[in-house]
Amino acid sequence: MRNAVTPGATVTLAQNLTDSPTTKPSRRSFLSSAIFAAAGTVLSAGDGLAVESLPDPIFAAIERHRAAYAAHDATLGEDEFEERIPFELRQSTFFDAQRGDPDWRVPTDHPDWIAHIEESCRAWREEQEAAAGLLSTDDLSPAGAVALLAYARDREDRGDPWPDFEEGSWLYLMLCRVVEVLAVSA
Question: Cα(170)–Cα(45) distance, rounded to whole angstroms?
């Protein structure tokens, strides 16, 4: 049996997404439906078992991103700094540093505040690079595509943000990548 998405299956999936009390499906419902559709495509290959000849590098990329996101998230709390460092010694901002403003450091700021911002920017860049790595992992298998969809759905459930790139939103680019993989293997 071939891995194929038939026009009927596509219409059914589209109807399932749009035949709801709301006219616009949620990203969660779309990702959940996409996971089931992709899993069905993967499991319809051969004798119904998804067999991979090589380990899919997406699993390592997902773990890398999970760790990078946790590290970045850990830098977001500023309560300790706000309690310890007076406001007038915390005038530099993460947003100016993140945008690459060469004058983001306010000379009178406390060195711990500057170090905090630098660490936050470093962790943010690593998370962005790890998110981009999820999109550019070579040898993505159909099973890996399903795992990527599931990871994206879980992050969406928690309300975690995804980065935007010049080419489009991370979520859109991820869906394009998954479609590409499943179409190639069809």
Answer: 28
Q: Say which residue the tokens 């500023």 belong to.
A: 78
Give the bridge partners for 169, in sequence order.
Answer: 164
Task: Give 10-residue mean pLDDT values along the chain (186 residues).
Answer: 35 38 54 54 46 77 96 89 93 94 96 96 95 91 92 90 87 89 70
Residues 101 and 166 in one domain: no
DSSP H helical segments within 2-26, as ranges?
7-18
- Residue 148 CB-density burial (10 A; 0-12 exposed, 13-18 middle, 19+ buried): buried
Q: How many domains does the chain have?
A: 2
Work out whether the CA dihedral 76, 80, 82, 86 comes out positive or negative. Answer: negative
Tokens for 170, please give them.
Answer: 């991370």
DSSP string over 46-82: TTS----SS--THHHHHHHHHHHHHHHHHT---HHHH
